[in-house]
Input
Amino acid sequence: MGKWDVHQYPVELIKRVRIVRRADGYYVQFCVKVDSQQDAPITTSEIGIDVGLEYFYSDSNGNHEENPRYLRKSEKDIKRVQRKIYKKKKGASGRRKARGVYARKHLKVTRQRNEHAKRIARNLCLANAKVVLEDLNISGLVRNHKLAKSISDASWYNFRQWLEYFGEKFGREIIALPSHFTSQECSRCGARVYKSLSTRTHSCSHCGHIEQRDVNAAKVILSRVNARGGHPQSNASRDVPSTFVGRKFSKSKERQ
Ligand SMILES: [Zn+2]
Output
C-alpha cells in the first residue's frame, strides 16, 4: 500500500484506473489484483478495542493507544485555518485562498492519520488472532458536521478498513460488534452501571469492580463476542488500491 511501482504488475492484473483530485493536485489511482496473504506469527491472543475521544483506542489488556502529538497539533492548526475562512468576505479572493490553505492542511492531516492508523492496525493484527471492535454507525458519521467528532469518526473508519485489510493479509479474525451499552456494562459481573460521557471511571456498585471506563468497555466488547458471536467482517475484495488516502465514505457500501 502507499507507493507501489505499477510496472511490476502484468497489465491483466490492473483492474481499475481512476484519476482523483486532491487539494494539492491530481493523482492516478491503480487498482491491482494481488494475492495479499502473508505469514504472520502463530498466536491465540484475542483483543477487544474501544474507541473514545480521549485515546485513539483502549484495549481489553488495559492499554491505551494515544493520539499522537503531531496529529493533535495539526488538528488544532486546521481549526484555526478553518475559522479564517469565515472571517473573509464571501466571494472574495482571500476567502478562496484561505479555502485552499485549509484543504491542503486537511489533506496533510488525513495522510498522517492514515499512516498512523495503518501502523497501529498492522501491529494489532500481527499480535492477535482475533480483534473485536465496535461497529460504527456510518449514517451518523455522514451527517455529523462537528469537526472534532467527524475527524475522530473518520479516522476510526479508516482504522477499521486497515484492520480488515491486515486481518485478511495475516489470516486474522476481525469482528465488528453492535455497540449496545458496551460502556454501561460491568466487565466482571455484567451488571448495568449507567454513566455519562464525562464519567471516566467504571465503578460497579454490584461487585465493586473499578476500572478505567474505556478499558472496561473493551473487555465487555471482547467477552460479548465470545459469548454470542458477532458479525465477522468479510473483506470481499482483494483489490488493493494503490493509495487509501482520503477515501470518501460510501454510505451504502459500508453498511452491513
Ligand atoms: Zn460488577
